[in-house]
Structures are given as C-alpha cells and as structure tokens.
Specification:
The chain is mostly helical and 170 residues long. The protein contains five helices and three strands, in the order E-H-H-E-E-H-H-H. The chain has one domain: Fido-like domain (Fic-like fold, Orthogonal Bundle), CATH 1.10.3290. A three-stranded antiparallel beta sheet has the order 1-2-3, with no helix packed on it. Helix 1 crosses helix 2 and helix 1 packs parallel to helix 5.
C-alpha cells in the first residue's frame, strides 16, 4: 500500500506503493533504482548548465521535476490536485497549493534567490533550510518531493558558489 494518504488518487498500481510508470515497472526496488539513476543524471546535467544569471524561480523548480522524471512518469512536473498526507503530517491543501507556491517563490525572488546573502554563510544556510522546509511542507507533487526539493536547494547552493566565483576583487 502507498506510504501516502490521498483524498483520492489513482497514480499507484493497484495494491502497491509503485506509481504507474511508462516503463511498466511494478516493484518498489526497481522503481527506486530508476528514479535514483534519473536523479543522478539530472544532478550532473543541471549543475553544469547553471549560469550566474539563471533564475531559480517556480518555473525552474517545476521544470527540474519535469526534465528529471518525464521519461518515467506522466505526472512529472504537474502539481497535485488532491489533498495528501503522510503519517501525521498534512501537506498543503490542494486548493492552496498554487497560491502558497507563488508566495514561497515570490519571497525567494525578493531575496534575489539568496545570491545577495551568499557572503554570510550562516545566514545563507538558515535561509536555505527555511526554503527547503517550506517546499517540503508544500509538497506540490504526487511523488519525489523530498528528492526534487533537495535537487532544487542544491542548485541554489551551486548558483551561490557560481555567483561568488564571478565576483572580481580589485
């Protein structure tokens, strides 16, 4: 059975915790192996494609998911439209998902995607943790929220490092 509770959902193969997928994989171990391979490929490809002027906005976040998992899942990059919980944790209600996502990314934009505080490592780390927590609580996708959020936060950190390396000291 699924590790998540949905108000309604048909993304899983009946009687399993395996999402319906384009490869016809029906067991947990194999699906996790493929997900991990795709995630590893995304880390390599995306980290090398970052430029100092890359904007890590909501569209970028959604496209991270889509580009990483579209070969496996039809729902890749699509925000969920059902309420969802795990254990005692209720994630953002579906009806507020888009507005809360917009709020988080507007806040991040006002902070210049953390580029301006990159010289203060403690503040940067706290802000990074804050946004990671906000995105986890949002839980916008049906599956792989933790992994895609870590990928996104890692991209913020890499972008900060790129920004620092482009600063010319006179």
């Amino acid at each position: 059975m699924s590790k998540y509770r949905f108000s309604q959902s048909s993304i899983y193969i009946d009687g399993t915790d395996v999402p319906k997928n384009k490869l016809g994989i029906e067991n947990t171990q194999d699906i996790h192996e493929v997900e991990n391979i795709l995630l590893e490929e995304a880390y390599t490809k995306l980290s090398f494609s970052l430029k100092a002027k890359t904007i890590l906005d909501e569209t970028y976040f959604i496209n991270l998911y889509k580009k990483t998992f579209e070969s496996l899942y039809d729902f890749a990059g699509i925000y969920r439209d059902v309420n969802m919980s795990k254990g005692e944790s209720q994630f953002c209600l579906a009806q507020y998902l888009h507005s809360e996502s917009r709020r988080i990314f507007d806040e991040l934009k006002k902070e210049c995607y953390l580029k301006d505080i990159s010289s203060d490592k403690t503040t940067f780390a706290k802000k990074l943790a804050y946004y990671q927590g906000e995105l986890i609580a949002l839980h916008p996708f049906y599956e792989l929220n933790g992994r895609i959020t870590r990928l996104y936060v890692d991209m913020l950190a890499i972008l900060m490092a790129i920004s620092l390396s482009t600063i010319v000291v006179l």
